Amino acid sequence: MKPIKPSSFNALSFKIKNGAVEMESNIIKEHLHKNLVVIKISKTKKLNSLDTNLLHKLKEEIENACNSKDTNIIILTGEGKFFSSGIDLEEVANSSSPEEASRPFKALGEVIESMLSCKKVIAAVLNGPAIAGGAELMLASDIVFATRDAWIQWPEIRWNIVAPMFSSILKHSPLPRLTYIALSSKRISSEEALSLGLISEVVDSVEEAYDKLINISKELMRNGNALKVYLPIIREAKKEVLKNIEDLISLSRSQELITRAKAFLSGKK
Length: 269
Hints:
Elements: E1 5-10, E2 14-17, E3 20-23, E4 27-33, E5 36-41, H1 52-66, E6 73-78, H2 89-93, H3 98-101, H4 103-117, E7 121-126, E8 130-131, H5 133-140, E9 143-147, E10 151-153, H6 164-172, H7 176-184, E11 188-189, H8 190-195, E12 201-203, H9 206-222, H10 224-238, H11 241-252, H12 255-268
Parallel strand pairs: 5-6, 6-7, 7-9, 8-10, 9-12
Antiparallel strand pairs: 1-4, 2-3, 4-5, 10-11
């Protein structure tokens, strides 16, 4: 596969604009193939955690790709060793009020809503661990490839909140193993995730996943009408998750969450 050339670069950096210093967002957008766009979370120093500003930019880039006539597959992945470690707990811990603490959770819900409204195929490529909100982005995707060293975890129960997408899966498939994963916050390997039907395929590298998606993109170019039939069915099946997103935002609007985030970060130091 040929090296990817970024069409726009928005990694964390500083730039001078009109005499002022501005910090750019942590999202990189690349064109992998003429019909594929890669949207990459690039916040490696904080394990690609999801803060409000990053999520707003991610939503913007997803919607731009969804509205592009030249795109049929949108790929979400991470830079470095993690796909995403979930909501940025430092932002939560530094919140001055429960309302402010709920902002990144609300922003995550908006990203998921944009994904579920998109008329293009969205593929997640797990280059590493997907935790909490990162795992939710994975489940909101249509196709999921995971490298062999990737793992997945939903630790929301520790924070007294819910995982919207995972909760929806549990509603329809209350299998003992899935229930155990939800209640224990146990991490699962990519191989186990595959056996549970949570991901599409395990790959040896991100590049292998990209090659497979290029082939799928070519197939969609030949059989685009089938996509118009399948995607609405898939989207409709997932849209009941919107109620769970409302529950997440409501539960995240609490002083207790701020206190737990502070305690967690204090324990890490």
